[in-house]
Each structure stands twice: as C-alpha cells, then as structure tokens.
Known about the structure:
Strand content: under 5%
Largest sheet: none
Number of domains: 2
Number of strands: 0
Shape: elongated
Amino acid sequence: MSTCDEYKPLLSGLLDGELTSEEVSKVNEHLIRCSACRGEYEELQKETSQLDSLSIREPQDEALEAFWRLPYGKMVRNSGLFLMIGGYLSFLCYGLVKFFTDDSEMLFGKFSVAAMVIGSVVVFGIVIIERVISYKTDPYKEVER
C-alpha cells in the first residue's frame, strides 16, 4: 500500500503528459500490477474526457482590457462612483445641518452624526495619504499598464 501512496499523485501527471519518460514507465509498470490504482486511473481518464468535452470560453485579457477602455465603461464607473459619493456626502451634509440647527434632536443622533463625519474625514485622509505615498514611491509609475 505504501507504493500506491507513492504513485497516486503521479496519475494526473500521467494523464496530462507532465511526467518524464522514466516516471511514465514506472507508473505504467505499477498500473499493470495494481488493480486499485488502475481503477483510479481509469476513473480519472473518464472524468478528464468529460471535462474536455465541456466547452467553456473565457474572455481573453485583450477583450477585458478593451472593455475597460471603452468610453461608456469609464462613464458608467465614474457616474456610479459620483452618485455613491454624492449621496453619502449629501446625507452627511443633511446630518450636519440637523446637528447644528435642530434643538429637538436627541443627543444620541448628534453623536452619531459627529462620529460619521470624523470617521469619514479620517478614512478619506488616510486613503489620500496612502495614495500619495504609494505614487511617490512607485518604481513602475512610468510603465504603461
């Protein structure tokens, strides 16, 4: 059984043609003698032929890059980002107005709005600082991506 443990990892390599000629001959000799490994090899062959019969088309890198370079793709991304940030900022502005003008607002609401504003300023500040630092130290900034 210890020899089977030695040969089982090589079965998929045999199917894929990734073994050296010496390894192929050793695995084939073992398959002739061992019916358990031969059965596992035949099962792997059957599964491989079923997988090979599937037709899966994956987009090529060029197609994806072309999609991201399209003008409407950039417009959609930028408009979505603008709407998201604009909505968040308008919500914060509304909260700030309520924070400063409405005396009936509960203290918990005022603390919540203050926490949101402070948290947003901290997060946006950190993102901007990290972007500036990474841009300054990026050795590949002249490389076209």
